[in-house]
Each structure stands twice: as structure tokens, then as C-alpha cells.
Design brief:
By secondary structure, the protein is mainly α. It has one helix and no strands. It is rod-shaped.
Length: 34
């Protein structure tokens, strides 16, 4: 596993984390959850 693979892996984690937070905020603002 070289450095580029590690960077890509971390970028995917960050991307999915932001996406999940965005979806959670949208759903909570709509009153679906929370």
C-alpha cells in the first residue's frame, strides 16, 4: 500500500463523512429525524 492509496482512502472517508452529515442535516431540517 503506497502513499497514493492511503490518500485516496482518506479522501473517500472524508467525502462520505461530509455527505452523511449533509444528509442528516437535510433530514433533520425536514423533520424526518431528530
Amino acid at each position: 500500500m503506497n502513499l497514493e492509496d492511503v490518500i485516496k482512502y482518506l479522501l473517500w472517508i472524508v467525502f462520505f463523512g461530509i455527505a452523511l452529515v449533509g444528509i442528516y442535516k437535510i433530514l433533520s431540517s425536514l423533520g424526518v429525524i431528530g
